[in-house]
Amino acid sequence: MNYRYDDLHGVAWRGVATDTVDDTVPADRVLLLLGASGNRRLLEGHLQDHCTVLEPGKCGLPEDGFDLVIADVGGFRHWRRRLQEAKRREAPTFLPVVLLLSRSELDRRLAALWDVADEFIVTPIERREFSERVAMLLRARSMAIAQRDHLAYLVNYDSVTGLPNKSLFLDRLVAAIREASVLNRQLPVTVIRIPLGRVLKSFGHHALERAVTACSRRLQTLLGDTASLARLSTDEWGLLHRPGTTVNEVLEVCGRIRQIAESPVEIGDERVRITPRVGVGLYPEDGADAATVLDRATSALSETDDVGPVFYSRQVQQEALRFVRTEARLLEALEKGEFEQWFQPQLCLETGRILGVEALVRWRLPSGELVPPGEFLAVAETCGLMPRIDHCMLVNVCATMSEWRRQGVGIERVAVNVSAEDVRAPGFAATIRDTLEHYQLPPPSLELELTETALFDISDENLQKLNDLRGLGVSIAVDDFGTGYSSLSYLHRLPITTLKIDRAFITDVHRDETNAAITRTILWLAHNFGLETVAEGIETPDEARYLRSLEVYSVQGFLFGRPMPARDLLRWMKQRSARWRL
């Protein structure tokens, strides 16, 4: 009997040491295509201990693939066209097909079936021979897959660093642009150039590879999973961001990249300093296809010797420069104490009595000019300065509150904004507690305002911090409720005391039925969960009258009082009447 593959004596089933299957190795998938022959039960008995046995579906062959096909003449005739298509899809990877034939069928049909079948087994089946033949074919299939995967790795990955190469990077960029187009989102592409020519000239190719590997590892450590890193050429790396990544987020990533220059690369006994340069291209502003956007990011590198990120788009570059300059000025402002605490009153809508104030940060330049919050808060959040600013505010606000209590000012509670980053800090709860004790303030005089985003998917550790503070008597409010990740589960799980109804729902609430319905729903939720509410952003008497008709208790907005420094707040309190009348 002649076979197309030489007999491999001693071939074992993959993943089999004794008679058990190693759970860490996926079982081979064997597809049975049998007509009216009586071999099905016999074959399943031979295969089921070592393989996953599959059957064809009503509409075709299994969509999730298979490793070996065993067919008799009837099954082969019925599925021949589908088998040819499956083998073409797998090509050049070997997909073995075994045909079961009687001796008479073998003589008559061998030449006609040779184009699809790879192996012929004559019936009646002898178990040992069958098992060896199947194992041999599966091993051949496994080796073909391993070779295919190895070749794919060589084609798509850099041999020095193991990072995706330029070819794979472009493929992924094409897919990302397709996704960004569907979502109508911006897609940034960053190119990082680290000049290593002098390393090659001074120390040779081996040293260059060591330097490239060291730079790649540093970049991977600094970037984490924020973007996909690839090696594009000898001294260039590509960074593919997620669709929708903003310019500010790109700048935050570029800030991490600059940290690679903080320590030199060691090459033998030598220490070589490296200075990365960064260029950024944006889809669709700078190009409509992958190659163009990548070329624009690379071109941006050549336009300046500045170590800061360079955007191909002039307009975006101006925004980036403003961001970098604002970040530098923020650091200086923290050192010089240029941040001020301003306060906006919160009142009882029915009586006009002041219930408390919200503390808001303001930045006054040495010239006396105030920087609009919209121009620096986003920058501070992106570059990680908000925790320092928030701590500065907490200390100053508590100091002011302590002075007000000494003077007998009738302000019972002050609300301060805290971020998710603040809560994640190891000493967050202790810092709040120690600050209150230092200024001899009762915990109920402080309210912490967190956004829904900060509270979303909060860890058990951080939840415990909030529980500890609530146990002390500190109030916890959800700011801008309804604009983020609103969920009944966190209203139940978190130690929340107050919901602040966002201005977006208060604007024209008296004539906008959608806003009115949302506001009524939030009030109903707060009532049923036993929470307080504060309606924010009230600017007109009509809005105030409608909220009073809903029995809203606490309000805040320009209609009653704008944010103001502490001294102006005290003056405002003296001048206003004891009762608010609409």
TrEMBL record:
This is Uncharacterized protein. Pfam families: EAL, GGDEF. Signal peptide: none annotated. Residues 187-317 form the GGDEF domain. Residues 323-577 form the EAL domain. It comes from wastewater metagenome. One of its GO terms (molecular function) is cyclic-guanylate-specific phosphodiesterase activity. The lineage of its organism: unclassified sequences, metagenomes, ecological metagenomes. PROSITE patterns: EAL, GGDEF.
